[in-house]
Design a protein that fits this description.
This protein is of the alpha+beta class and about 300 residues long. It is built from 8 helices and 10 strands. The strands form 2 sheets. The chain has a 5-stranded mixed β-sheet with strand order 3-2-1-4-5, sandwiched between helices.
């Protein structure tokens, strides 16, 4: 039956990418960890939610469930029922976690993915929107954009889907989910992957810099920060590969400042090489080099403490 309130029924499914995804971080040496999958939650009454993962293990699947329920709890919603495929969701640990939270669960039949059509449709829509954003940015700024940025394009696609006022009376899905009037500001939404001119740190802190020094530095927009105000975006440093939440910045949504720029080819590829996606000769790297030890680095946008100074 059709859901009548948020959290009544949530469809769940997972997607996997053969293209390793960039794992953004605020400071330190760039990690070799990669996103390669995601869990998609679709509330039948309102919105969609996505949790990025570095593997499709049971532990990370349960962590994705916990993250979604924290998100729902922040908006005053309690999840009552999950509908999902078999696989990881049929494992005892996942079912026990549902039981511990007084949640019911239902499954599709074997090889009957159409019985989870709501989640399957959401994955198709999210994939198409993510691909569109990536290819548009790559066509406009080929020297800087890499397909490994798909996790952040996917986050941006979900953000636009949930916050755009496309429902009755110009409301959004996040408003329908939370029951709170949020409002939508078009000026806070910018093209994924577009050039960003962020104010130098000294000036942003109220200090002075030499008169003829550049007042801004060039970066790349990775979409809105999930843990800050709506007008704060994640900006990728093209020289270091580090990512930080920025407020004092200007966005070139039409990519006009990077058109026909020969210097751009020399400067904007630094982050791809430092992150291990491109070799020094410019050829692509698809996997982590042999012998490299992977270290855990908390990804940008997972807790409220990720961006402490």
């Amino acid at each position: 039956h059709e859901a009548t309130y948020p959290g009544e029924c949530v469809s769940v499914d997972q997607l996997q990418s053969t293209q390793p995804g960039f794992f953004a971080q605020l400071k330190g040496k760039l990690t070799t960890r990669r996103y390669n999958s995601a869990t998609v939650f679709v509330d039948h009454y309102s919105l969609r939610y996505i949790h990025l993962m570095t593997s499709m293990s049971l532990e990370q699947t349960i962590e994705a469930k916990k993250a979604f329920e924290r998100f729902a709890n922040d908006h005053g919603v309690k999840i009552k029922h999950y509908h999902c495929d078999n696989g990881r969701f049929a494992d005892n640990a996942f079912k026990l976690h549902c039981d511990a939270n007084n949640q019911s669960i239902s499954y599709c039949g074997v090889n009957t993915h159409f019985q989870n059509g709501i989640a399957e449709r959401a994955i198709r829509d999210i994939t198409e929107q993510t691909r569109t954003m990536l290819l548009h940015a790559k066509a406009r700024w080929p020297a800087a954009i890499h397909l490994c940025l798909w996790p952040y394009a996917m986050r941006t696609a979900i953000h636009v889907f949930n916050t755009a006022p496309v429902l009755e009376e110009c409301t959004s899905r996040i408003e329908k989910f939370s029951g709170v009037k949020v409002g939508f500001r078009m000026k806070d939404n910018h093209a994924f992957g577009c050039p960003v001119f962020a104010l130098q740190n000294d000036l942003a802190a109220g200090n002075k810099i030499p008169k003829w020094s550049p007042r801004a530095r060039l970066g790349m927009n990775l979409g809105p920060s999930p843990n800050h105000a709506r007008n704060v975006n994640l900006v990728l440093n093209l020289h270091t590969g580090l990512c930080s939440p920025q407020f004092h910045c200007r966005f070139d949504d039409f990519f006009e400042t990077v058109r026909h720029s020969s210097n751009d080819l020399m400067t904007s590829a630094d982050w791809k090489q430092l992150a291990g996606f491109v070799k020094s000769d410019g050829t692509s790297v698809s996997n982590v080099p042999p012998g490299v030890t992977q270290q855990y680095v908390r990804p940008v946008g997972t807790t409220n403490n990720d961006f402490s100074d």
